[in-house]
Amino acid sequence: MKVFLRRIGALVRLSLLELWRRNDMFVLLVLALVLLVPLSMARPFGAAGATRYFDEAALLLVWGYSLFISLGVGGRLFTSEFSSRTVYPLLAKPVSRGELLLGKYLGAVVAAWSALAFFYALWAVSSALRGGECLSACLMQAFVFHALFSALAVAAALCGSFLLTPSASTTLLAILFPAMFFFGRRLPEYAENVSGALRWLVKAFYWAAPHAEFFDMRQRLVHGWGGVDASVFLAVAGYGIAYSAVLLLLAGFLFNRKRL
Amino acid sequence: MPQAVSGGDFLSVLLGDAKQDLSYAMIHEADSYFHGGVDMECHHLHDAGHEGGHCAHDHGGGHADGAYEHEHHEETSFDPWRWINERVRAPEVERHLEGTKAVEMMPWFWAAVKSDPHNEEAWSTAWYAASHLMKDKQLALKIAEDAWRLNPSSMEIACVVGRSCRDKETFDGERSERMFGLVLDMGLGKEEMTDRERFSFAEALSYLAEDAQRRKDRDALARLLEKAKLKIPGHPIVESIRQKM
């Protein structure tokens, strides 16, 4: 067990280093500053004091960035190893395919979470500077939900990288997740407005597609509603963990069948 | 055939007629902010989903006990995804933005009028929020002035300026009367008025009749009555002016 954990730990450390060595994070940070600094100085009709629009815009950026990072790290996990053929020396060591997959997945998730924690910390500091609450139960819940979503997105990107080409998989997921994020809850209404096979298709999609919108606590955070009930928290957490586990199992199955 | 783009500003070129839709989407967002972040259309669509999805929302506290109800769908077929969505996205207590907090709506109104400077509804709702929710009469007058500068032929905006000039903090009786008179002139010059224009026409008549009654000016009241009977004969304002005489 100790050896297993040490191997996993090494893989996690590698993924973490890989993310922070890349310039992605700093580019995203500069982009955020370019977008948000002018927004923070806006005085609509000359009236000062509005902050919620800024909080909402900043959180939306955090969501966009975290999706970008999660899909990026998840999609790159094995494609780069295959293209540079570094997967062979990795597997030549006493590491099973399952351990390698789990280790690299956990590494990618930890890397995505570290980026997420960084962005949430910036948001919390910015909120505190404008007189808001720095740390609240709702913020903690929002972070946990968002972290679960990141784990799900990494699992989806990893699974997709075994099924499709990396660019096709990332593009598809970059459309699917935002579509579900913004329109997922309205799918039953769309289904009611179409007929025949399309209705069943929309309904099947509604039941099977990853509901990114479950993890979105922006409204609660921005408008000060407070956190969700324990039952809802557990339901969303359970959904995220179960969905990620299924995707990871599928990725494991595909990786084991892959001829190297 | 190539489409002509009205106006030469960047948004007109980029969005064309879609800027009007964008403007209304911004008003919708402001409305959602007024309800403490709840998208009333979606919220009610969820509640009324099985009745066809049409449900108008009211601002007068339609939820009698102040809490949102979740039970409706559980009576029919249980949908766990909907169950989660309703609980994550609906607050336990209904809240409205009031007082100075209503300033949170202003960025959305600003975006709405920037998207479409001729969206009279956006201007008048922004003015209402500033004047009646925030009670910032100076800000309200500024919004009314900006709106009037960009929409000099709008009865609704003229009426808004007239109302702003009647407020104690920004009082200008002469201008107020002039603006309401302008609303009547514009209305009389139109063959057909829209509902919003009819509302502005009646509102202007009401304020002018109030002033005339205070001055005990029966001739002015008689003239206003004639105008009312001519343009909006079945409107309650006709009877109201008659009673003032």
Secondary structure: elements and pairs:
The complex is a heterodimer of chains A (260) and B (245).
Chain A: H1 2-21, H2 24-40, H3 52-83, H4 87-92, H5 97-129, H6 137-163, H7 166-183, H8 187-193, H9 197-208, H10 218-222, H11 230-257
Helix pairs in contact in A: 1-5, 2-3, 3-5, 3-6, 3-7, 5-6, 5-11, 6-7, 6-11, 8-9
Chain B: H1 10-15, H2 18-34, H3 40-47, H4 72-75, H5 80-89, H6 106-115, H7 120-133, H8 137-150, H9 155-164, H10 173-188, H11 195-215, H12 218-231, H13 236-244
Helix pairs in contact in B: 2-6, 6-7, 7-8, 7-9, 8-9, 9-10, 9-11, 10-11, 11-12, 11-13, 12-13
Describe it for me?
The complex is a heterodimer of chains A (260) and B (245). Chain A is an all-alpha fold and 260 residues long. Chain A has one domain (2-257). Chain A is built from 11 helices and no strands. In chain A, helix 2 (24-40) runs antiparallel to helix 3, helix 5 (97-129) packs antiparallel against helix 11 and helix 6 runs antiparallel to helix 7 (166-183). The longest helix of chain A is centred in the middle third of the chain and has 33 residues, at 97-129. The model of chain A has no long low-confidence stretch (mean pLDDT 89). Among the domains of chain B are: 11-89, no CATH class; 153-244, no CATH class. The model of chain B is unreliable at 1-7 and 44-74 (pLDDT under 50). In chain B, helix 12 (218-231) packs antiparallel against helix 13 (236-244). Chain B has helices at 10-15, 18-34, 40-47, 72-75, 80-89, 106-115, 120-133, 137-150, 155-164, 173-188, 195-215, 218-231, 236-244. Classes of the chains: A mainly alpha (260), B mainly alpha (245).
